[in-house]
Amino acid sequence: MTAAATVAAHAESWPIARPFRIARGAKTVADVVVATVRGGGFAGRGECVAYRRYGECAEGVAEAIRGYRGPLDRAALRDALPPGAARNALDCALWDLEAKRASKPAWQLAGVPRPTGVATAYTIGLDTPGAMGERAAAESHRPLLKLKLGGAEIDGDLERLRAVRRNAPGARLIVDANEGWEMAALERFVPVAVDANVRLIEQPLPEAADAALADARLPIPIAADESARGDVNMAEIATRYQVVNIKLDKTGGLTQALALAREARALGLGVMVGCMVCTSLAVAPALLLAHFAEVVDLDGPLLLARDRTPRLPYENQCVSFDSAVWG
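The structure assignment produced for this chain is given below.
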């Protein structure tokens, strides 16, 4: 990258179609940060979402990007910034810039097949059993539904699961508790989940308590989400989980995410690729991980009241890459 390259960042708020709630709280807008790197007559962009779970906020992330004075190089970026949203936006902007300068799509630069017709999960936010059942009925045409659970009482989560299954009898189900349970709750939940044919449970226990999973012998695969952040020890993850959910805002960008996906596969871990509630600009780079993944959860733009223009094509419950959006 030339010395004349410049970095800019700004925050944006995108309305969510309906209030989106998980175990840690609810939101009605998606606050994102867009980084832009300009150099050699081209501009690359990357979008990130600040993780409140890790003490980030949108304006703080934007300030970190604007204040970055290190090398504008993807390899150097890993050492210059900690993993997180700011590094993700800059890393993805550099991928976008490199693709434009080389006149090659980012998927070719990454050495993966073009992501086309990738089936994605659709998320039903945490709500009352009745409300989640109604949403499941409305989305029952989708092949894969993801349920946000982790309510105050496990009995409520069991009712939520039963309501969704009644109203979407043909859908495959995955469950995400967002660290909302203790081991006793998980043990109560699993038999009901087996009966409901749940395929995967994400992050049932808090990160600080997930060592208990090392001794568990559960009939449903468990995925690491909050426990798989930054320069995660993938070998340790493999002693507690069967699947790892890789999100660019946690890994600090596509560069690290690709390396972690390859490492996970080498260790025999299943790979899931996920996203925050975001626009197509954030999902496009994450799509490059679909090549490694058994489960793809890239429905962020579908949860918004509107997406940015241009946007990724979502058709027949599938999403495809489009270099007009990114890369």
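Interim note for the steering committee: The longest strand covers residues 6-22. The chain has a mean pLDDT of 96.
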